[in-house]
Amino acid sequence: MTLTGLPNIGPKLAENLRRAGIETPEDLRKAGAQEAFLRIRAQVDPAACFHQLTALAGAELCIPKKDLPPERKAELRAFFDSL
């Protein structure tokens, strides 16, 4: 499977991931959504938004971001707000 085969990952986010050194779905799972997001922010797009973070978290679990549990969304929001 390619990055764009994951839920929530379109061509632009897949390109951002590749530019941040994450080439495969397995790379994303190993790094985790938060680490992947930090890499994108540091190396590709300093203005990466909360929606990208939730997209990555959903992709990591192979679910649409709208299906993330509320507690996970709250964790992601706290992480994002701390940056």
Task: Describe what you observe in this structure.
- The protein is globular.
- It has helices at residues 11-19, 25-31, 33-43, 50-61, 70-81.
- α3 (33-43) packs across α4 (50-61) and α4 (50-61) packs across α5.
- The longest helix is centred in the C-terminal third of the chain and has 12 residues, at 50-61.
- The protein is built from 5 helices and no strands.
- It has one domain: 5' to 3' exonuclease, C-terminal subdomain (DNA polymerase, domain 1, Orthogonal Bundle), CATH 1.10.150.
- With 83 residues, the chain is mostly helical.
- 61% of the residues lie in helices and 0% in strands.
In short:
The protein has 83 residues and is an all-alpha fold. Helix content is 61%, strand content 0%.
Mean pLDDT: 98
- β-strand number: 0
- Uncertain runs with pLDDT below 50, 5 residues or more? none
User: What is the number of helical segments per DSSP (H or I, 4+ residues)?
Assistant: 5
The first-level CATH class is given as: Mainly Alpha
Global Rg: 11 Å
Major beta sheet summary: none
Helix content: 55-70%
Structure characteristics:
83 residues, single chain, DNA polymerase, domain 1, mainly alpha, 5 helices, 61% helix
Secondary structure layout plus pairing:
Layout: H1 11-19, H2 25-31, H3 33-43, H4 50-61, H5 70-81
